[in-house]
Amino acid sequence: MSTPKLNLVVAACNNNGIGINGKLPWNLRKDMDFFKAITMKTSSPDKQNAVIMGRRTWQSIPEKFRPLRNRINIILSREMKDVPEGVFLARSLPEAISLITGTELVDRVEDVHVIGGSSVYKESMTGPYPCRLYLTRVLADFDCDTFLPEIDSSAFSKIPNPENVSTDLQGENGIKFRFEVYEKV
Asked: Which InterPro entries match (predicted)?
């Protein structure tokens, strides 16, 4: 398997904020459904998608949902000693990709999704990796302490949504948002 395309899945508000105190600053059921659909859907019943996340993103997932079911969970951490049951541990993004393309997982993984945090998004977006960005653009202001790097318009271009998810303006809990998809050029 050559270097797989990294599918970055993220929701960001007006200031590119993606979280505060290890949590999402908003509660959008449609965004969670979109996240699950994108990260779980495979064309082969014999394969699963991999989700790559940093240690803090892993810790931000409520314990009852860890590991994310029906997905191969890979945590990036240079500090973790104990590997949680049902997950893989990699010390870096290149190591995670080697794990996916290596003998143990190569026949089990269909697509690769990066689900946070900020530094993992940045490395994916600026590194030599082919990538697609699935962005839920939350059209509101929230206090955040974690941010999505700016989307470089010379490196990424907005594309029609390939999964036929509505790009129309949506609303939930008084918050407006829309789904956008970008491809690295």
From this structure: DHFR, DHFR-like_dom_sf, DHFR_CS, DHFR_dom
CA 179, CA 168: separation in Å to the nearest integer?
8
**Residues 122/10, Cβ–Cβ less than 8 Å:** no
Q: Domain range holding 65?
A: 6-184
The enclosing domain of 158 has a CATH number of 3.40.430.10
Strands 131-138 and 175-184, by their bridges, are: antiparallel
Residue 96 has pLDDT above 80, yes or no: yes
* pLDDT confidence band for 64 (50 / 70 / 90): very high
1 located within any domain: no
Q: What pTM does this model have?
A: 0.95
DSSP string, 113-153: EE---HHHHHHHHHSS--EEEEEEEE-S----SEEPPP--T
